[in-house]
């Protein structure tokens, strides 16, 4: 039986709420760029509940005002242990600006979708203020923004290299990736009386030391030293070389400790924890969330990011795709951490008890919806692997790609008496369902999964992400050849017809990605038109820290091959590439004829009279796809963007 939560069922966000719990002091204070939503899809809630589970007193300062007398930062006073600072579920710059560096008109993590409730570079701004107010209190920074800026990185919005965020923020400790394991280790040491400034050996953390000091000794880790921040500033090739080591060490089971000099200091990045076990990830999702935004926000309007995931279930973390433009593996890792069926079904049961649940689950998914329970067949082989992707350039023969566990959990959720429909809203990796690509996969199970997915779990549109049609560009993206998308669409159309449905296939595409030329975009437009697609609101490449594509964009070199890579950098170049997505608009026809004057065959394909409906006469095309240019949200499942695989 559902019971309306009391105000004390949320973690306190005001001094009054703290006193209602008879607390005079807090052990940890979390400062977040997001509104407080007490739901496992939001990092602030997960970290807060985890701290609470250790018998500690924790409060949250959500979206504090940084431009007044700083009263928000002072309302709880000093924490006994430390401040925990996060920009929120997204990098604050990605949250604020479009790929063309225009200010976004809304913020999905704020009540009413209002903008202006967090600063640019929020982690740094919050930490700097706290250091001024409470210089003797340690600060731990974490979340996506801190995670992806842990070493020298290119910042697209200022168009320059920035040093590790540990340096700029003046934080004492950085936690990268999913924070449960390092946080629990930190809390254990602090509860045992270990001084904060002596804690240097926790995996998945980073810190600064003076160059004239001895580095903390480690018998368990070897070291690898990157080119210094100063060398990176002077030499783009050296900067590009750094990234290969950063990416590989971030995704190894047995990794090295990373060192990078900056001025008179050294940034130390300890190797990551092993992938969370089923028991560990269940524990994080099974904490006592109210699953609701704090009541304080009721009068300010709904929070768009919450409305999107309110009735969704995140079944796993991580992604082994390794796409060049995506930050998921950089933050969550490439190895999949899957929840147990029991934990997932408990969350479904909780959801069905909510008073406004109407019987529909919006998403049974994850960063990529169909990677649940997939892992290496022989773990010892994974332990030695340093491939950034398990499926590029081909599917690893050691990777178990069976979709049977997904079929099993779909069936059990469908059997719940209060669930009318459970949809898969997350994008799927279509290539895992193409036998010609996933050659070791069980074709019978692949086909059964596709049939069940389209029959029972697609609300009308299935999202997939071929991203481009040029094999050269796709190789740079670490995506499969577009020929496999043709094969997937053939299977999709066949099952769609068998079911007697009119489901739509929604492909995402990216313009201006490194190694994408104007002629590649023209061919993309022609090929997708021939397939019957009508593309709208597609994504222009946004360079975000800690991706292969961003390093190539800035440096001009591929970080692995060190070969030069062309990238559309000028504003007009980017606009022209993007314009090809909208070949069917009448105002673009003269432009297409001009830029393709030496390619009459492509002009013919795009503007042929026999396809009159496509040349801007106002009639609807056969397939109307509305691909979102907005970032695809991360419930800490993904960065930045909800990049669907």
What does this entry look like structurally?
- The radius of gyration is 25 Å and the shape is globular.
- Helix 2 packs parallel to helix 8, helix 17 (443-456) crosses helix 19 (482-499) and helix 20 (518-530) runs parallel beside helix 24.
- It has a nine-stranded mixed beta sheet, with helices on both faces. A three-stranded parallel beta sheet has the order 20-21-22.
- Residues 610-645 have low confidence and may be disordered.
- Helices cover 33% and strands 13% of the residues.
- The protein folds into two domains: 7-209, 3-Layer(aba) Sandwich (Rossmann fold), CATH 3.40.50; 311-614, 2-Layer Sandwich (Transcription Regulator spoIIAA).
List keywords for this structure.
alpha/beta, Rossmann fold, 2 domains, 3-stranded parallel sheet, 24 helices, 22 strands, globular
CATH third-tier fold name of the largest domain = Transcription Regulator spoIIAA
Specify the helix fraction band.
25-40%
At the first level of CATH, the class of the largest domain is Alpha Beta
Q: How many strands appear in the DSSP assignment?
A: 22
Any low-confidence stretches, pLDDT <50, length ≥5? Answer: 610-645
Report the span from N to C terminus.
38 Å
Helix tally?
A: 24
The gyration radius over C-alpha positions equals 25 Å
**What is the count of structural domains?**
2
Overall structural class, as computed from helix and strand content, comes to alpha/beta
Dominant shape: globular
Give the CATH architecture of the largest domain. 2-Layer Sandwich
What portion of the residues fall into strands of 2 or more residues?
5-15%
What's the mean pLDDT score? 93
If strands are numbered along the chain, what order do they take across the biggest sheet?
A: 3-1-4-5-8-9-12-11-10
For the biggest sheet, the summary is: 9 strands, mixed
């Amino acid at each position: 039986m559902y019971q309306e939560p009391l105000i004390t069922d949320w973690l306190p966000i005001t001094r009054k709420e703290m006193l209602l719990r008879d607390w005079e002091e807090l052990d940890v204070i979390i400062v977040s760029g997001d509104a407080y939503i007490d739901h496992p899809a939001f990092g602030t809630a997960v970290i807060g509940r985890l701290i609470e589970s250790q018998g500690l007193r924790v409060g949250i300062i959500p979206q504090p005002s940084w431009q007044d007398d700083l009263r928000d930062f002072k309302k709880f006073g000093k924490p006994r242990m430390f401040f925990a600072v996060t920009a929120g579920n997204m990098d604050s710059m990605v949250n604020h600006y479009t790929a063309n560096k225009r200010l976004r008109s809304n913020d999905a993590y704020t009540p009413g979708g209002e903008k202006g409730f967090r600063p640019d570079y929020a982690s740094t701004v919050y930490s700097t203020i706290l250091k001024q107010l409470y210089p003797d209190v340690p600060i731990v920074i974490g979340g996506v923004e801190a995670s992806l800026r842990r070493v020298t990185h290119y910042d697209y919005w200022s168009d320059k290299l920035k040093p590790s965020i540990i340096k700029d923020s003046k934080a004492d400790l950085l936690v990268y990736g999913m924070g449960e394991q390092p946080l629990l280790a930190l809390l254990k040491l602090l509860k045992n009386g270990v001084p904060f400034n002596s804690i240097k050996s926790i995996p998945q953390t980073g810190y600064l030391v003076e160059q004239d000091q001895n580095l903390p000794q480690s018998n368990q880790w070897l070291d690898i030293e990157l080119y210094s921040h100063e060398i990176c500033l002077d030499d783009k090739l050296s900067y590009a070389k750094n990234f290969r080591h950063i990416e590989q060490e971030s995704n190894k089971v047995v990794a090295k400790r990373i060192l990078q000099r900056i001025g008179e200091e050294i940034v130390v990045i300890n190797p990551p924890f092993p992938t969370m076990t089923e028991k560990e990830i269940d524990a994080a999702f099974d904490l006592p969330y109210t699953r609701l935004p704090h009541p304080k926000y009721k009068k300010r309007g709904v929070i768009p990011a919450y409305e999107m995931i309110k009735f969704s279930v995140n079944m796993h973390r991580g992604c082994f795709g390794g796409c060049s433009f995506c930050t998921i593996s950089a933050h969550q890792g490439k190895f999949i951490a899957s929840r147990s069926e029991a934990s997932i079904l408990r969350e479904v049961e909780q959801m069905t008890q909510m008073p406004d649940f109407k019987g529909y689950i919006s998403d049974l998914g994850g960063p990529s919806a169909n990677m649940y329970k997939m892992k290496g067949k022989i773990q010892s082989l994974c332990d030695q692997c340093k491939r950034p992707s398990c499926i590029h350039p081909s599917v690893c023969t050691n990777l178990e790609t069976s979709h049977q566990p997904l079929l099993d959990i779909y069936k059990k959720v469908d059997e719940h008496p209060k669930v009318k429909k459970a949809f898969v809203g997350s994008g799927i990796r279509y290539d895992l369902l193409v036998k010609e690509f996933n050659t070791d996969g069980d074709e019978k199970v692949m086909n059964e999964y596709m049939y069940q997915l389209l029959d029972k779990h697609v609300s009308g549109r299935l999202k997939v992400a071929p991203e481009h049609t040029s094999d050269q560009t796709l190789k740079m993206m670490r995506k499969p050849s577009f020929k496999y998308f043709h094969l997937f669409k053939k299977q999709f159309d066949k099952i769609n017809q068998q079911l007697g449905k009119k489901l739509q296939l929604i492909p995402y595409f990216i313009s201006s990605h490194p190694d994408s030329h104007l002629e590649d975009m023209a061919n993309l437009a022609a090929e997708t038109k021939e397939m019957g697609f009508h593309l709208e609101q597609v994504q222009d490449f946004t360079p975000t820290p800690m991706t292969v594509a961003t390093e190539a964009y800035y440096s001009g070199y591929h970080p692995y091959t060190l070969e030069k890579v062309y990238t559309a950098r000028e504003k007009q170049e980017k606009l022209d590439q993007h314009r090809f997505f909208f070949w069917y608009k009448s105002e673009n026809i003269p432009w297409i004829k001009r830029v393709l004057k030496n390619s009459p065959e492509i002009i013919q394909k795009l503007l042929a009279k026999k396809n009159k409906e496509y040349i801007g006469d106002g009639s609807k095309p056969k397939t109307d796809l509305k691909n979102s240019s907005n970032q695809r949200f991360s419930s800490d499942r993904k960065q930045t963007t909800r990049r669907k695989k």
